[in-house]
């Protein structure tokens, strides 16, 4: 079955990288409906085009600090149906936690230097556009294994491993394959994480992501 074409807004202040990504996305069947070199242009483009997903760099003009991820958080608040994939060289843990706290679906955070294959980036892009989660393992490690203490300290080493893989968007079956354990064992670890983080079941909540958010909220991220 042919994959649907994604409508993308691309925010990247480097003209060379931006043009290269436009060419790459076009070759992979995506439609780049707008590009942006500043956070203001990004917000205007998303409001105008309502894409499937926005690809956002963190550091953009005029200060080149956190304009991009601030805009990403605003998109999550004002256009929750638009997926947001942060694609950057930097890990900003405080803003990453705010980005995740805005909701548990349609969000990703990848590090440019750690994406080894184009297929990895495209898989993450489609996952985010479809309402999933795509977090680089290094980002997850910073968020989950921070210096401050919290309920995560009550997890066993195996439960921590499961939590990291959950946050990266893996299913129970995928986690079981990676850890070489049974799917039933993974289900027990997941249930233990939910219990220790006091996450009760509701129809609307995505507890897999909220398990990570529970840690982030108590560390002040």
UniProtKB/TrEMBL annotation:
Superkingdom per UniProt: Bacteria
Domain Response regulatory: 7-127
Signal peptide location: none
Entry-annotated residues carrying 4-aspartylphosphate: 57
GO MF annotations in UniProt: DNA binding
Coiled coil feature spans: none
Keyword Transcription regulation on entry: yes
SUPFAM superfamilies per record: CheY-like
Keywords, ordered alphabetically: DNA-binding, Phosphoprotein, Transcription, Transcription regulation
Annotated ranges, domain HTH luxR-type: 148-208
CDD domains xref list: LuxR_C_like (cd06170), REC_NarL-like (cd17535)
GO biological process, one term: regulation of DNA-templated transcription
Name of this chain's protein: LuxR family transcriptional regulator
Biological source species: Streptomyces vietnamensis
């Amino acid at each position: 079955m042919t994959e649907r074409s994604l409508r993308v807004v691309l925010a990247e202040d480097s003209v060379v990288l931006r043009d290269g990504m436009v060419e790459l996305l076009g070759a992979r069947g995506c439609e780049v409906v707008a590009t942006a070199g500043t956070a203001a242009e990004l917000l205007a483009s998303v409001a105008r085009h309502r894409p499937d997903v926005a690809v956002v760099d963190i550091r953009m003009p005029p200060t080149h600090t956190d304009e991009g991820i601030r805009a990403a958080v605003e998109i999550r608040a004002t256009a929750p149906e638009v997926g947001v994939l942060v694609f950057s060289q930097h890990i900003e843990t405080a803003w990453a936690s705010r980005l995740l706290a805005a909701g548990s679906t349609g969000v990703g955070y990848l590090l440019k230097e750690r994406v080894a294959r184009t297929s990895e980036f495209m898989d993450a892009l489609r996952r985010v556009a479809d309402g999933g989660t795509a977090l680089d393992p290094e980002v997850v490690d910073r968020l989950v294994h921070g210096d401050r203490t919290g309920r995560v300290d009550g997890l066993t080493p195996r439960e921590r491993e499961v939590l990291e893989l959950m946050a990266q968007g893996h299913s129970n079956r995928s986690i079981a394959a990676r850890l070489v354990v049974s799917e039933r064992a993974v289900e027990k670890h997941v249930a233990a994480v939910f219990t220790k983080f006091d996450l009760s079941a509701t129809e609307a909540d995505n507890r897999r992501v909220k398990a990570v958010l529970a840690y982030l909220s108590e560390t002040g991220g």
